[in-house]
Amino acid sequence: MNIQNDNRRKRTDVLHVMAALLVAATAFIFASCDDDMDIQQSYPFTVETMPVPNKVAKGETVEIRCELKAEGRYSGTLYTIRYFQFEGQGSLKMDNGITFLPNDRYLLENEKFRLYYTSEGEDRHDFIVVIEDNIGNSHELTFNFNNSDGGSGDTEHTEDAEGGGK
User: Fold this and answer.
1) Where is there biased composition of kind Basic and acidic residues (predicted)?
2) Are 84 and 127 contacting, i.e. CB atoms less than 8 angstroms apart?
3) Which of 11, 138, 149, 159 has the greatest number of C-beta atoms within 10 Å?
4) CA distances from 75 to 12, 48, 104, 122, 165 (A)
């Protein structure tokens, strides 16, 4: 009879251990579940431009063809554009007719767009164009034009991509 009681006690102990392990495993599984899906909302992007002339005369307009290229798509992403001219005098317009004011943000409605820079002075023209998304990523384009009536040297056009939360 002692042997039977020992066997029953061992079986009961094994069942208790198995039940405890089952409860622990179930608790672990439910604790590791997350109802929130991780959806990537921020994608790095660049802005590519076609080559532009290196000189511009007073009153002349230069077309700058641009294309925004994002590494992914998220339907809630909005892009804005702004510019700042730090040397020379001129104006920058969008292909939809909007004339930019320095450092004012404008909604960028298309991934392919054209900018038109019109020289209003006889000096060198230097300005930056910044495209930003609503997540905090940005891409900067720098344009440098010499006066076609004088001066020498080539125009420099550089790109400086800045990503993720600054």
Assistant:
1) 154-166
2) yes
3) 138
4) 58, 21, 24, 44, 19
Angle at 160 between CA 92 and CA 67, to 5 degrees: 55
> Distance (Å, rounded) from C-alpha 94 to C-alpha 17?
73
Task: Tell me the Ramachandran region of residue 153: left when phi exceeds 0, alpha when psi lies from -120 to 50, beta otherwise.
Answer: left
Which candidate, 138, 134, 130, places its Cα nearest to that of 78?
A: 134
8 Å CB contact between 62 and 53: yes
**If you classify domain 45-162 with CATH, what class do you get?**
mainly beta
Average pLDDT over the chain, rounded to whole?
83
The answer to whether the pTM exceeds 0.70 is: no
> Quick count: other Cβ atoms within 10 Å of Cβ 61?
12
Least-confidence region, from 76-80, 90-94, 130-134, 149-153:
149-153
Residue given tokens 């109802």 in the structure block? 35
Report the C-alpha gap between 70 and 81 in whole angstroms: 15
* One-letter identity of residue 148: S
